[in-house]
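Q: Convert this sequence to structure tokens.
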Amino acid sequence: MSTSAVTAERFASGRTFEEYVKYTGSPENLAREAFGGYFADAGSFGAPRKDNSGVFRERYARARLTDHQAAAIKWLASQPGGPAKILVISEDWSSDCRRDLPVLARLAEAGGMEMRIFNRDGAKILGTRRPDPAAAPGGNHDLMLEFMNRKNGGEWASLPVAVFYTADLEELHRYIEYPAVYEKDLIRGHQQAARPGESEAQAKERSQREFVALQASPFFDLWACAGIDEILSALHRKLLLGGR
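A:
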């Protein structure tokens, strides 16, 4: 995109983390569709939305940066042209968002950075891989189009997106969906594959049970921590080497 939709006014219109958590449990949010699954052609279909505000509150309450992470973001934020703002695109039905947003909030606090959170979708969930702002005026699909997940020859509207900016809204780094050490596609593919003797329904039920257990395991905290390490390293590289 030649012109960014992220202006100072647009950035300021996003929610703080506290506002976002309160919003996730509101009637306004719960009236919106959540992700229900994929159609055979890779499109998504909607489902009723659950109140995930308690999950965000609990994960935020126990989220802590390590001493070296806190020191690193303080140093980075103090440098000329260092990170000062974080724009996040989120949907609370996403386990990746529930994993990362609380620790991103802690990162923003430690670095004295301003974080603003935006919904991706409007009343209806995005049903295609590529957003269409004209078809979903109630969402933020124009923002999503700037920060698509491009890999393996394709592109997706992955969540969360966390974009780090200078105080003047010069982009420094974008983090998308999950850290490299969380091999999500491989893990989910293994969980979703039918075991010998399982029916399709049994495989689906077991896969979902295993994924819920994974989200409650220490590994989700480990990957949240790895995401912060990945971000800090990328920001350091940007300030040290510029565009290289």
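The radius of gyration is 18 Å.
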